[in-house]
Specification:
Blueprint: H1 8-12, H2 17-23, E1 32-33, H3 45-56, H4 69-83, E2 93-96, H5 98-110, E3 116-121, H6 127-133, E4 137-142, H7 153-159, E5 164-169, H8 182-194, E6 198-202, E7 227-232, E8 245-248, H9 251-264, H10 270-282, H11 284-307, E9 320-321, H12 332-343, E10 345-346, E11 348-349, E12 361-364, H13 369-386
Parallel strand pairs: 1-10, 3-4, 3-5, 5-6, 6-7
Antiparallel strand pairs: 2-8, 7-8, 9-12, 11-12
Helix pairs in contact: 3-10, 4-10, 5-9, 11-13
This protein binds 4'-deoxy-4'-aminopyridoxal-5'-phosphate (PMP).
Residues 37, 98-100, 124, 170, 174, 202, 204, 232, 234, 240, 245 line the site of 4'-deoxy-4'-aminopyridoxal-5'-phosphate.
EC number: 2.6.1.-
Cofactor: pyridoxal 5'-phosphate
GO molecular function: pyridoxal phosphate binding; transaminase activity
């Protein structure tokens, strides 16, 4: 049997729980999907026009492995102005195929077989499979509702061992919407330094921070050298399909990631990179307009969920609400399936984000006010029957 040739590591990992769930609703137009984590906006017109211009000029070749120098320059300026992070464009920034590739590069570059990778639970669905594929041993650290879905020093300290090597963090968080302040990060940074951890900080939702400003753990004293900041254009700039992300950090660590990138992706798509330059040079106001829309929807959705009897922590970032469904007596899979079949609303069962996600569902508000209103009406009817 040829299937026996499939690598055990690949065989071990399940297909994406989100995708599997959405196949159930595919092709049914009556279903309102609040499932997938993708802005409902098209990329702004001037960004598309910049790409069309480049295409018409025949700019269709490979770029330097680390990305177009102009883009690396713009990324460095942007991170400095927005988040107080300073990186040298020449060797502290790599442009990647979405932030997804940057995450994979970091895990591949640093994990030696048996190294422990600490991953908060709940967390973004791809971290554990990516860490497993790269030979890491996954250690979950609780980021529970009682602690506002934040990472705490107490919880982190409990899971540290001599094999701990990497800590993955993602704030603003998918799926909970939690954010971390400078004060929240201080004790985490101390632990990372004390135990010589590399921190992989996925800051793809940094721009979508609604109350106050995003703080990167890399901006804390002594943290730049041991943190790989990963981000990209998919979410705040509405550019999911262009596949452009980046990694920034310590030049020695980045050089290791760049080696893998050179042999695998070679470079991120040139047209995506050209569009990303336009987004950073002239598209910052567009991003602010989209953020304002997300914020309005956030208010509507959170108030709506609470009023129909679904307690919900206030998400301060990203575009997800993570209401508790435990009091219905259903587990998250059954709740989400019944909501889909009986009310025609697709949300993601929390367990797909790790053990810490059981008892919750993830509801995306990257959908129009009209859709959210209709979904809330349907959910209200559903909850009346269940409770
Ligand atoms: N990190 C998080 C937390 C995400 O939610 C996503 C997309 N769902 C990604 C990374 C990947 O984004 P991309 O590869 O499009 O940059």
């Amino acid at each position: 049997m040829l299937s026996e040739h499939i690598s055990p590591r690949v065989r071990d990992i399940p297909p994406s729980g989100i995708r599997a769930f959405f196949e159930l609703s595919a092709g049914n137009n009556d279903i309102i999907s609040l499932g997938v984590g993708e802005p409902d906006f098209a990329t702004p017109e001037h960004v598309r026009a910049a790409c069309i211009g480049a295409l018409n000029r025949g700019e269709t070749r490979y770029t330097p492995n680390a990305g177009l120098p102009e883009l690396r320059e713009e990324i460095a300026v942007y991170l400095h102005n927005s988040f107080n992070l300073y990186y040298e464009p020449a060797d502290e920034v790599i442009v990647t195929v979405g932030s997804s590739e940057a995450l994979d590069l970091a895990l591949r570059a640093f994990i030696a077989s048996g190294d422990e990778v600490i991953i908060p639970s709940p967390s973004y669905i791809a971290y554990s499979p990516m860490a497993h594929l790269n030979g890491g041993v996954i250690v979950e650290v609780e980021a529970a509702a009682e602690q506002g879905f934040k990472l705490t020093a107490e919880a982190l300290q409990k899971v540290i061992t001599p094999r701990s090597k990497l800590l993955m963090v993602n704030f603003p968080n998918n799926p909970t919407g939690a954010v971390m302040t400078y004060e929240d990060w201080l004790p985490i940074a101390d632990i990372a330094k004390a135990h010589n951890l590399i921190v992989i900080s996925d800051e793809i939702y940094a721009e979508l921070t609604y109350n106050g400003k995003h703080t990167s753990i890399a901006s804390l004293p002594g943290m730049k050298e041991r943190t790989i900041v990963i981000s990209g254009f998919s979410k705040a700039f509405a550019m999911t399909g262009w596949r452009v992300g980046y990694a920034c950090g310590n030049r020695e660590l980045l050089a290791a990631m760049l080696k893998i990138h050179q042999y695998t992706a070679m470079c991120a798509p040139v047209l995506g990179q050209i569009a990303a330059i336009e987004s950073l040079r002239n598209g910052l106001p567009d991003k602010d307009v989209m953020k304002e829309c997300f914020d309005q929807r956030r208010g509507l959705l959170i108030a709506g969920l609470r009023s129909i009897g679904l307690p919900c922590h206030e998400p301060h970032g990203a575009f997800y609400a993570f209401p508790s469904i435990a009091h219905t007596g259903l587990n998250s899979e059954r709740f989400a399936l019944q909501l889909l079949h009986e009310a025609g609303v697709a949300a993601v069962p929390g367990h797909v984000f790790g053990a810490g996600g059981e008892g919750y569902i993830r509801v995306s508000y990257a959908a129009s006010i009209q859709k959210l209103t209709e979904a809330l009406e349907r959910m209200e009817g559903f909850m009346k029957v269940k409770m």
